[in-house]
Amino acid sequence: MKQINPNLVKKVIVKRPVCSHKGDYGRLLLLGGTYPYGGAIIMAAMAAVRSGAGLVTVGTDRENISALHSLLPEAMAFSLQDKVLLAEQIEKAKVILLGPGLVDNEGGARLLQQVFERVQHNQIVILDGGALSILARTKIPFPPSQLILTPHQKEWEGLSGIAMDHQNMETTAEALSAFPQNTILVQKGPRTRIWQAGQEEYYQLEVGGPYQATGGMGDTLAGMIAAFAGQFPQVSLYERVAVATHLHSAIAADLAQENYVVLPTMISQVIPTFMKKLGQDSN
């Protein structure tokens, strides 16, 4: 087991070069929020923008766009019913987050298949929420891109076939061997573990608690992971995912000192402050 320590955090969250622009910090495409789960994709987008993503575009139900723009004018948005624009945005994106608030139905399955068919090997695809359920149900062939999975225990049961009470280090490592090489797994739970297929060791969180047990927490984490995936090229993608996951729970732990529960939007509000505090100012 590997530790996520302050040195790793400082290695990932570095000072931005003076001569840089928004295009250097990731072109993200977030897809989801089908009725009645519009809040999920909005929370993911809030976390992505506040984690430093350069360009964030959201594909969602048209009814969600006004709410999204009222809360987050920094993000662009379009209707998932616009198939031409959807195809264009898939092609342009560096990182695609698919699944927050995505309903597991035939429409969701078509969206997953379209993404898988269009992405290239140099893109990153993150599957969360409904996309994980659809993948487990349909067994659509994996895309050629780098793949990041963010299941909670029940979703991992569906993907791996391992019952929740049998999920441990040995069974997870064995199940990961059936996924594409270098797949990254964020196995969410009381002690979240971050795996990379083909590696024996894994990162395990030492922060977090039951104050995080509220709707939208995973959507916020997924948005943070997407933002980190689009930035910080000086380290491996695996390290970026590990630090994003750690930061999410570290912020929650800090907020829990004065709050009985920690809401996902509370975490998003302070992400930039904590990135400054834990990253470059510690150098």
Descriptive report:
With 283 residues, this protein is an alpha/beta fold. Strand 4, helix 5 (106-118) and strand 5 (124-127) form a beta-alpha-beta unit. The chain has helices at 6-12, 38-50, 65-71, 83-92, 106-118, 130-138, 153-160, 169-176, 217-229, 237-255, 264-278, and strands at 27-31, 55-60, 76-79, 95-98, 124-127, 146-149, 184-187, 193-196, 203-204. The protein has a nine-stranded mixed beta sheet with strand order 3-2-1-4-5-6-7-8-9, sandwiched between helices. Helix 2 packs across helix 9 and helix 10 crosses helix 11. The model has no long low-confidence stretch (mean pLDDT 94).
SSE inventory with pairings:
Layout (H helix, E strand, L loop, with lengths): L5 H7 L14 E5 L6 H13 L4 E6 L4 H7 L4 E4 L3 H10 L2 E4 L7 H13 L5 E4 L2 H9 L7 E4 L3 H8 L8 H8 L7 E4 L5 E4 L6 E2 L12 H13 L7 H19 L8 H15 L5
Parallel strand pairs: 1-2, 1-4, 2-3, 4-5, 5-6, 6-7
Antiparallel strand pairs: 7-8, 8-9
Helix pairs in contact: 2-9, 2-11, 6-7, 9-10, 9-11, 10-11
